[in-house]
Amino acid sequence: MKKRSLVLVTVDCLRADHVGFLGYSRPVTPVLDALAENSIVFSDAIVAGAPTYFSFPAIMASRHPLALGRDVLGIAPHERTLATALRDAGHTTAAFLAGNPYLTSRSGYDQGFDIFHDFMDSGFPGESALSGLPATKRLSNLNRRIQADSRRTHLTAVAYDELYFWYCQWRSGGQNLSMDILRRYPAADVVVDQARVWLSSLGEEPFFLWLHLMDPHHPYYPPQEALSSLGISPMTPRRARFLNSFWNRGDIGAQRLQQYRGEILSLYDAGIHWVDKQMSRLVRALQQFQRWDETVFVVTADHGEEFLEHGNRYHSPIGLPEQLIHVPLLLHAPELSGIHLCQGSFSLINLAPTLLDAVGVAVPDSFQGRSYWEQIAEGNLPSEPAIVECIGACNNPFRFDDRMRPRLMAVRDAAYKLVIDFSEKADFLYDLKNDPGEHSSLPVGALPKARARLLQVARAHLQETQHNRNAELRLLARLRDLRQSMGTKREQAPDCSVAD
Questions:
Q1: Which of 34, 303, 392, 426 is least buried, going by the fewest C-beta atoms within 10 A?
Q2: HSE, side-chain direction, 13 A CA sphere, residue 176
Q3: pLDDT digits (tens, 9 = 90+) for 41-80
Q4: What pLDDT score does 324 carry?
Q5: Rounded mean pLDDT of the chain?
Q6: CA 302, CA 35: separation in Å to the nearest integer?
Q7: Are 235 and 227 in contact (CB under 8 A)?
Q8: Would the CA dihedral through 463, 467, 469, 475 be positive or negative?
């Protein structure tokens, strides 16, 4: 029997409630919606961590993000992953990742791949376009003095911030902009183009292809074609730049931001729509090269995105609301016909072992998740609590101090979610059925049995993590970080050598 191949598409910032096959009313994902009609659809797929740097250790290595310690970032050297398992089983492997700085060889994500292209060495037009805009570092000495003086009172600080924002908009008004120039990451068509070329070069051997797409990630600059296809007009590049600049302001509250939320969501949805269009091209390529009927095809996300539902924007790990942790998961396999809806919480810690089982490859002993392929195929997926963990307010994981902040954790099942804030030494219980928007946590004395049950799951997870920690992998990861840190310092040091 011919070995199966695997395609894994991960989409940055893709929320579960913004895809049609999970109920979104806007026609953003027609291609994936059609594919879902003959696929397994998980209604409650939950990430193991958020954002990207806390999510992908589970997706690629089936390892809880903090299991090696809070001081470890990414995949440890020699850690077993989805890619290493498939390559060892005879699969040709390739990854094309759209410029996410946390998914690079620096963090170990190249392990197991014959071809690894993260686009980090590719310049994008937006970099040069942004360099000419006013920025704090380019303030004149006079402007610096004005800014410093403005901080003497709250009112003058507010006035300065407001005037400076509109000054920046005026200064950039004469620039000849386009969505392609403004975009910070390669669009999905660029990544899929490379994947199609790679697929065309394959022989008959089984393969593993991983694509990571950044189109829904901020700043939101979707191709004009995606905007037109969704009927979002007029939306000029200048308007999109203004919206992104205003949405990114840290000096104003949610009430003022709210007035532009609808337009920001339209830009976000257009990015998702562009990903959807490229999925059609990717599927057609697999069909053209006669590989579709032997391929397990998976689409999911590393985390979602917030749009002021709880007063926050983007995906900072300052909370674990459903908008961040609930993601789409669609799995198409050759033998499937008709939609298979899997209800109940499914943690992405179990994704890698399930996918290996689906393609007939042995699951590494180091994986902390388990395969549910047999239960999924039988339509009998058990609902078990999903654990989500991250470091609270860790917005720059390359800073060691940021990685060592207190833990933030959630235990989520089909009915309830318990969020444990270790910095506040407090826990918050939410009734997801009666309060799906998580508008208010339940009183401390409410539902004591449910709270105790989820607390016990959290306690058992922490104990198991501590007891089973792999000291060797942790040491290898820390040594890698140390070498990289020393290399960076050497690059920054002045040249003191004496010429001959």
A1: 426
A2: 0
A3: 999 999 999 999 999 999 999 999 999 999 999 999 999 9
A4: 98
A5: 91
A6: 20
A7: yes
A8: positive
Q: How far apart are CA 364 and CA 379, in angstroms?
A: 25
Q: What percent of the chain has pLDDT over 70?
A: 93
* SS3 state of residue 297: strand
Mean pLDDT of 27-35: 98
Find out whether 387 and 457 touch, Cβ atoms under 8 Å.
yes
Cα–Cα distance, 291 to 304 (Å, whole number): 31
Total number of residues shown for the chain? 500
Closest to 361 measured CA to CA, from 369, 349, 373, 348: 373
Question: 87 is written with which tokens?
Answer: 């390559």
What single DSSP character describes residue 424? T
Which of 299, 235, 313, 302 minimizes the C-alpha distance to 267?
Answer: 235
Structure tokens at 137: 């570092």
Radius of gyration of the chain (CA): 23
Strands (E), 185-266: 207-213
What pLDDT is recorded for position 490?
A: 53
Q: How many CA atoms lie within 13 A of 339 on its CB side?
A: 16
Instruction: Specify the residue for token string 């970080």.
Output: 481
From CA 164, how far away is CA 146, in angstroms rounded?
A: 11
Least confident of 82-86, 121-125, 311-315: 121-125
Which helix H or strand E contains 65, and what residues bound it?
none
Q: What is the pLDDT of residues 426-439, one digit of tens each?
A: 999 999 999 999 99
Burial class of residue 408 (count of CB atoms within 10 Å of its CB; 0-12, 13-18, 19+): buried
Residues 49, 69 contacting (CB under 8 angstroms): no
| Pair of tokens at residue 266 | 């339209």
Is residue 484 very low, low, confident or very high in pLDDT (cuts 50, 70, 90)? confident
What 3-state DSSP class applies to 286? helix
Distance CA 153, CA 166 (A): 20
Neighbours of 214 (CB within 10 A): 25
Asked if residue 272 lies in contact with residue 216, where contact means CB atoms within 8 angstroms, the answer is: yes
Q: Are 15 and 327 in contact (CB under 8 A)?
A: yes
CA distances from 482 to 80, 400, 493 (A): 22, 11, 17
Look up tokens 């250790």; give the residue.
57
Is the backbone peptide bond immediately before 51 cis, with ω within 30 degrees of 0?
A: yes
Q: At what angle do helices 141-150 and 154-172 cross, to 10 degrees?
A: 140
Cβ 357 vs Cβ 82: under 8 Å = no
